[in-house]
Write a structure and sequence with these properties.
This protein is mostly beta strands. The chain is built from 3 helices and 46 strands.
């Protein structure tokens, strides 16, 4: 019985050490496998053969200990070493390393699998995959680039295919305005000769007179039914973009006055003072004498000029002359700048200013905003005031927003905040007044050119127009018992019966590690230690083989005795 037990025990020892050598060989073979986790074999004893359970101490005997002979060992478990492997830099921004706990989530043909190997790349469909083609899972984004955290999806980074633009939301204007300049009290005043109404016995025209009945010389109408009028005046020495109007059977003189007003961008109301000469608000009107009169805004940069040839009808000059009786006055400045709508289309803006009032402790300038790209049919956009204290600092400006209509395009309507606090109320007579654009946060269309992944797994796309947008977020899985995971090849694991279900987390939260982009986690195999363990296992294997050899010799001796 004893020799047989020794044979069986040593045979079990050979098997155990074979297992240990297999595990050590696998560790060493994967010393260069990224994200590999080494394993080690844990042994435990089998039941022992009890020869005596021992005895208690007595008055005449000190007692005896149990006498047992072990029956060998068993493999208790093969345990994975999930400690952190060394992290090294790589040359690819799509390579990822986890610093801490957690596994990447991959979608494979056999379902969801998990891995520590972050060797990822973009495939032909711009999807992030591992070297086996498994799709990296995470959170996607909606059409406004907001993360959608309700479900996992494939991570997509469409380099060269995704185009975005950014609508301007904020504008900052700088410059310096001269507080000692001339106060603006007078706008340009231009008036036609008195015109007659052919439809009303050649009486003076009124606002209700049909445009086709207006005559400068009796019997010669100025406007023809069905033709298209174009108006191209000048303002501040600059030719304005023309607007057009169709002459219909119901078009009136008031309609034509409004058309000229919109083309000139004349602004009134909102606290704008009345004109010093006419005593009325700026604008284009029909006078009591039957003439068209233009009263412009103050500021020399707003001075209006209309000459013969500025009004045409189907390309032919309308012979209606304007006589200029007053020029606009007032210390002023002008600047042009470009903002962008939601499609990235440029919107040209013009800003002018005019000194409106001055007191012992403050100076007030009025500003005017215009845009030929405003789709509401009027180039006038907004006006307001800028108030400076006695030290030239802005104490107030209002309004602080303006809107641009884009109704004729597919873009969204624009609502822009304007900051005028950087304008100085101090300047010299030689320098005069100046305005300039300091900042606007919109951009024209740009193409996704690169991406970066931060430590929380958020993928930030960088476009060639400078815009940065969120493209998704890499998520991680944690397990209550990672030792229960099943290896499924290709450096991946599957959920096991004892691992517990995956707990989905974002990097850096709920105990999960953080992401290091452009890096790779190396194998955590300790080659030196594994070689030492291999020597020990080999020695143990030889020892067990020697026991079998010794038992064989003893059996041979017994057989000799039987002859």
């Amino acid at each position: 019985m004893g020799l047989t037990s020794a044979l069986n025990t040593s045979l079990g020892g050979l098997s155990l050490n074979e297992t240990s050598i297999d595990v050590l060989g696998n560790n060493i073979a994967n010393a260069g496998t990224n994200g590999f986790k080494a394993s080690n074999v844990l042994f435990t004893t089998q039941l022992a053969r009890t020869l005596s359970v021992g005895s208690r101490p007595s008055s005449s005997n000190g007692g005896t200990n149990p006498r047992q002979i072990g029956l060998g060992a068993l493999s208790a478990s093969i345990r994975k070493d999930f400690t952190q492997g060394s992290v090294t830099n790589s040359t690819s921004p799509s390579d990822l390393a986890i610093q801490g706990d957690g596994f990447f989530i991959l979608d494979s043909p056999d379902g969801q699998v998990y891995s520590r190997n972050g060797n990822f790349e973009l495939n032909s469909s711009s999807l992030l995959t591992n070297q086996s083609g498994y799709l990296v899972q995470g959170y996607g984004v909606d059409e406004d680039f907001n993360l959608v955290k309700t479900t996992l999806t494939d991570i997509k980074v469409p380099l060269g295919d995704l185009n975005v633009a950014q609508a301007t939301k904020n504008v900052e204007i700088g410059g310096a305005l001269l507080p000692t300049g001339e106060i603006g009290t007078q706008g340009s005043i231009l008036t036609t000769g008195n015109l007659t109404d052919a439809g009303n016995a050649n009486a003076a025209i009124t606002g209700t007179t049909l445009l086709t009945d207006i005559e400068e010389t009796i019997g010669t109408p100025l406007f023809t039914l069905g033709e298209t009028l174009s108006f191209t005046p000048s303002k501040g020495g600059r030719t304005l973009d023309p607007l057009t109007m169709q002459v219909t059977a119901t078009t009136t003189a008031a309609d034509f006055a409004s058309f000229m007003d919109r083309t000139l961008g004349i602004q009134n109301g909102g606290g704008i003072p009345n004109d010093a000469t006419t005593g009325a608000q700026p604008g284009v009107t029909v006078t009591a004498g039957g003439a068209f009169q233009i009263v412009g805004n103050t500021g020399t940069v707003n001075d209006i000029s209309v000459t013969i040839g500025n009004i045409t009808s189907d390309g032919s000059t309308v012979p209606m002359a304007f006589t200029k009786s007053e020029s606009a006055n007032g210390e002023s400045a002008i600047t042009d700048f470009v903002i962008f709508d939601s499609l990235g289309e440029p919107v040209t803006m013009k800003m002018t200013s005019s000194l409106e009032s001055r007191s012992s402790n403050n100076t007030v300038f009025r500003y005017f905003l215009e845009s030929a790209d405003d789709n509401d049919g009027d180039i006038a956009v907004s006006n307001g005031t800028i108030t400076f204290d006695s030290k030239g600092n802005v104490t107030n400006f209002t309004p602080s927003t303006f809107g641009i209509s884009r109704v004729n395009t597919a873009a969204d309507e624009m609502d822009v905040s304007i900051d005028l606090s950087n304008i100085s109320g101090i300047s010299s007579a030689s320098a005069g007044s100046t305005l300039k654009l300091d900042l606007q946060d919109g951009s024209d269309p740009g193409t996704l050119s690169s991406f970066v992944i931060d430590e929380t797994g958020i993928i930030n796309g960088v476009f060639d127009n400078g815009i940065i947008r969120t493209l998704g977020q890499v998520t991680l899985a944690r397990f209550s018992n990672p030792q229960g995971l099943l290896e499924s090849g290709n450096s991946t694991f599957q959920e096991g019966v004892s691992s517990g279900p995956p707990f989905l987390v974002t990097p850096g939260n709920f105990g999960a590690g953080t992401i290091r982009a452009g890096s790779i986690e190396l194998s955590n195999t300790d080659v030196g230690r594994n070689l030492v363990d291999l020597i020990v296992a080999s020695t143990n294997y030889r020892g067990n083989a020697r026991v079998i050899s010794s038992v064989q010799q003893l059996v041979d001796e017994l057989l000799v005795l039987g002859r």
